[in-house]
Design goal:
47% strand; globular; outer membrane lipoprotein receptor (LolB), chain A; nine-stranded antiparallel β-sheet; 164 residues
């Protein structure tokens, strides 16, 4: 009998940590709201992002116009490249941080990570309850030898167009 009790205790000792683990599908569900926002953002044809970089203390603007992405910092000329779309399978470590009203708009605050080779991008977004799109963001990228950090404000209007 003592042998069976010892075997049962050993089995329970191994199972207890497993029982406390979060199943993979639960971790996926934690990011459902952020992934829905990313899909909506990707489908939105006209977006303006005005931001301020912490390290360079410069103002920048990014325009998403259909399949193009325009950006410039300060008084420098505009640059253009194909629009970079968010990949929802790269979104992880999502955490709901609370709610806040910004200029009369109710938002839900989320943070999440985007991990890629030798860098970690951390986002904090204030997502509109009405539209499902971000109104405000804080971004931080950590690389082995540098850090990029900025705050931004998003606007969505049909009259946003190519700057040149």
């Amino acid at each position: 009998m003592k042998k069976h009790v010892m075997a049962l205790m050993a089995a329970l000792a191994m199972c207890a940590p497993i029982a406390k683990m979060t199943p993979a599908f639960a971790a996926d569900d934690a990011c459902a709201s952020v992934k829905a926002m990313a899909n909506k953002f990707n489908a939105t044809p006209r977006i303006r992002l005005d931001g301020t970089s912490y390290l360079e203390a410069t103002h920048f603007t990014t325009l998403y116009v259909d399949t193009k992405e325009w950006w410039h910092a300060g008084s420098k000329p505009w640059h253009i490249e194909p629009r970079q779309y968010s990949k929802t399978n790269d979104i992880e470590n999502c955490e709901h941080l609370g709610s806040e009203t910004i200029d009369g708009v109710q938002t839900e605050i989320w943070s999440y990570d985007h991990l890629s080779y030798q860098e970690v991008d951390n986002f904090k977004l204030w997502i509109s309850v009405d539209t499902g799109l971000p109104l405000k963001s804080h971004f931080k990228r950590v690389r082995p030898k540098d850090v990029i950090e900025w705050d931004g404000i998003y606007t969505y209007r049909p009259d946003i167009k190519d700057p040149v």
